[in-house]
Design a protein that fits this description.
With 335 residues, the chain is an all-beta fold. Helices cover 2% and strands 38% of the residues. The chain has one helix and 22 strands. Strand 3 and strand 4 form a beta hairpin.
Length: 335
């Protein structure tokens, strides 16, 4: 997801519907094995640091990247620019991307099979003001569903652009991209939902409130709690200080640990968290001109971890090219 008023977050889809969109079907996605083939890709080596600096980054880049060597970058795949807020995959290999106010379904080979823009129905906009979707997640409950973190951002608005000061989780049918309902998170606990990720056992939904990690019970995300009239959802657990920078952009689970993407200037990092304690371990560090977005775990294209990076580079030539986003695929090194 994009952060802090970058150009991507200023793009807002027009809204003309007054009811939830219907029947935006994904054709054939469920029959595909999850092997990402047929992409536009570039073979890469360990470093991507040969760009020229033009102007200051939004934050100081810090020291030169000191990658711990746990992961090896194997492929860079190019994606359409509008796929720029987050990424997730279903167990059968379908891939889903979120945009500012859109959701896009693709095959395992990233051939688009469906899209809905705007994805947030007008009745939700009228009730809550939401205009942004963060890094989405796939959940196997209710026969399979997409969970969409919802927030507000308007450049120049009060409260650092968060003009509504609340967050919710939207629920969407992954087969049709039809909006189903949403549940509202208690604003006394969280002021916006920037990303969400479901635990491997499906019992918990994780997200972030400033520097804290929050865990919600997925059993509370049900039609009986549907907003705007349903009960406010409270977190089951809060782990303080799990995000010292407050800058996570997306998350995924791997080997029971929550992997989170962060960036500051040109310093891009992925940490893994022990969700019981909040203790962090550096997994990847790279020097990149761009903007960090979502993370996805899938055994595909010779790798396991996939990191979405968009070409918003604050005056520098984007490391992975202009006009399109990139998905970086990493394989775990044997130790």
């Amino acid at each position: 997801m994009c952060r802090h008023g970058s150009p991507l977050r200023r793009r807002t889809a027009s809204r003309t519907s007054t009811a939830p969109p219907t029947n935006h079907r994904l054709n054939g996605a469920s029959s595909r094995a999850f092997t990402l083939t047929g992409l536009t890709t570039t073979d890469v080596t360990v470093a991507s640091t040969g760009f020229q600096t033009h102007g200051a980054p939004p934050r100081a880049p810090g020291a030169e990247a000191k990658d711990p060597g746990r992961w090896r970058l194997t492929k860079v795949s190019r994606i359409p620019f509008e796929y720029f807020q987050g990424v997730t995959a279903s167990p059968n290999g379908a891939v889903f991307f979120s945009g500012t106010n859109g959701v896009f379904g693709t095959t395992a080979g990233l051939r688009e099979t469906g899209r809905v823009e705007p994805a947030i129905p007008q009745y939700v906009v009228d009730a809550e003001g939401y205009d942004h979707i963060g890094d989405l997640a796939y959940d196997t409950a209710e026969g399979g569903r997409l969970l969409l973190p919802l927030e507000c951002y308007r450049a120049g608005a009060e409260n650092a652009g968060n003009h509504c000061g609340t967050g919710s989780i939207g629920v969407m049918d992954p087969r049709t991209l039809r909006w189903l309902y949403y549940v509202k998170l208690d604003p006394s606990d969280i002021k916006k939902a920037m990303w969400n990720e479901v635990s491997p056992d499906g019992a918990s939904l994780y997200t972030q409130d400033r520097t804290d990690l929050l865990r919600y019970d997925t059993s509370q995300i049900v039609p009986g709690n549907a907003a705007p009239n349903g009960a406010l959802i409270k977190p089951a657990q809060r782990i303080a200080g799990a995000f010292p920078s407050g800058q996570a952009t997306g998350a995924t689970f791997h080997r029971g640990r929550l992997f989170v993407a962060e960036y500051s200037g040109t310093r891009f990092r992925v940490f893994s968290l022990d969700v019981a304690t909040g203790r962090r371990r550096l997994e990847i560090e790279r020097t990149v001109a761009g903007e960090s977005e979502g993370l996805m775990t899938a055994r595909a294209r010779g790798g396991t971890l996939h990191w979405q990076i968009m070409p918003v580079s604050f005056g520098r030539p984007p490391t992975y090219g202009a006009g399109r986003g990139a998905v970086l695929t990493f394989t775990e090194r044997r130790r």
